[in-house]
From TrEMBL:
GO aspect biological process, one term: lipid metabolic process
Gene Ontology cellular component annotations, sorted alphabetically: membrane
Positions of the Fatty acid desaturase domain: 71-337
UniProt-recorded name of the protein: Fatty acid desaturase
Pfam family, one: FA_desaturase
Taxonomic source organism: Nocardia terpenica
């Protein structure tokens, strides 16, 4: 049986039967990995936490020698690594519930808080629920453009987007703050679709969390360094900046390179689980690299696998990836991946290109894959999203 057929217009067409089979195979993969979780996974996350704490202690300590440039640079590097590990391989993944099976209070997704200005509960709503449930659906997934960018041809152009590269650069440099305000939906407030009273509770939470972070990084630790206050303050600012640029780059490479597909609400209404899986694979992209690179990315370099199984421990993504790639090959689905340089280049090229009106850039590309859906009356699977 031919897995995929090619239409006269080019896109590949996936039948309802094939979608069901994809869902079944991915469910089996998930069940197999879940059943195998155990001591090696526990040892892995404890080793990452130990490393993160070690880098933070080293970074804070080296700041006391910050009057010597090599020690200041080493302190910034250590503190940057600490913050990246905390936010990505630990915080992001813990708050997805990846380690809830351990029943370890310090790794409980419901109470964990991370070293960044965004309150954990607000991030879990905007990211775990909104983004992972409605991945790349226009009008539902607010990560498409983050409310300030034109990052997909499906977003209608207007002159505001001429500043696309400037907005993207500002978001990159201030990424933790952009993540913090994401759940406020500031663009909808400006358009009058949301009132300030709607976000009063969110603002209070942000004020408390951001206040603690600012006090820690920009007041307490600099004061503790005495006469080295200025160099310590500069070091903390630099470490947060490094973390912001790195996190932005990894996340944008996983979602916005050329070839990643977006969807309409009509196309995705009442999805089956198999259809949800297919959307995750078409709407995500991976980054190739070595083991250390994957750890430093929070294993979000395996963005496809993360979107398929967001609550499986991320250290398992490297072993899952070959099976997911083989599944894509079996059904003719694209498996978007490439080195960081190529992926980030593709993202920035898109940011610059989509700043211009469509008359100068051409029409939107046709979808690479079309999923043929059963009539609603014949659907037997409930819609389900793995968040």
């Amino acid at each position: 049986m031919a897995i995929l057929t090619e239409t006269g217009d080019g896109p590949l067409v996936l039948s309802p039967e094939q979608v069901r089979e994809i869902g079944r195979e991915l469910d089996e993969l998930r069940a197999r990995i879940t059943a195998d979780l155990g001591e090696r996974d526990r040892a892995y996350i404890y080793s990452i936490i130990k490393a993160q704490r070690g880098f933070e202690i080293a970074g804070r300590g080296l700041m006391y020698l910050g009057f010597l440039p090599p020690f200041w640079l080493a302190g910034v590097a250590a503190l940057s690594v600490s913050k990246i590990l905390d936010n990505m391989e630990i915080g992001h993944n813990v708050m997805h519930g990846q380690w809830d099976w351990m029943r370890e209070p310090g790794l409980n997704s419901r109470v964990f808080e991370w070293d960044t200005v965004c309150p954990a509960d607000q991030w879990k709503h905007s990211h775990n629920y909104v983004h992972h449930t409605f991945t790349n659906i226009h009008g539902r997934d607010r990560d498409i453009g983050y409310g300030i960018l034109r990052i997909d041809e499906g977003q209608r152009w207007n002159p505001y987007y001429l500043g696309n590269p400037v907005y993207a650069f500002a978001l990159m440099m201030l990424f933790e703050w952009g993540v913090m305000v994401h759940d406020l939906e500031v663009d909808n407030i400006i358009r009058g679709r949301r009132s300030w009273s709607d976000i009063k509770r969110l603002l209070k939470g942000q004020w408390r969390k951001a206040g603690r972070q600012v006090l820690k990084d920009y007041v307490a630790f600099p004061l503790l360094s005495g006469p080295l206050l200025v160099s310590t303050l500069a070091g903390n600012i630099a470490a947060n900046l490094v973390r912001n640029v790195w996190a932005y780059s990894i996340i944008f490479c996983g979602h916005f390179p050329s070839g990643v597909q977006t969807f309409t609400e009509e196309e995705t209404a009442e999805e089956t689980r198999g259809e949800w899986y297919v959307r995750q694979m078409l709407g995500s992209s991976n980054i190739t690299g070595g083991r250390l690179f994957h750890i430093m990315s929070g294993n979000l370099s395996h963005q496809i696998e993360h979107h398929l199984f967001p609550d499986l421990p991320a250290n398992r993504y490297p072993e899952i990836a070959p099976e997911v790639r083989a599944l894509c090959r079996k059904y003719g689905l694209p498996y978007s991946t490439g080195p960081l340089s190529r992926q980030i280049g593709s993202v920035w090229a898109k940011i610059f290109r989509l700043a211009l009106p469509p008359a100068l850039t051409g029409s939107a590309p046709a979808p690479g894959v079309i999923v043929m859906r059963e009539p609603r009356s014949e659907r037997s699977e409930p819609s389900e999203a793995g968040v």
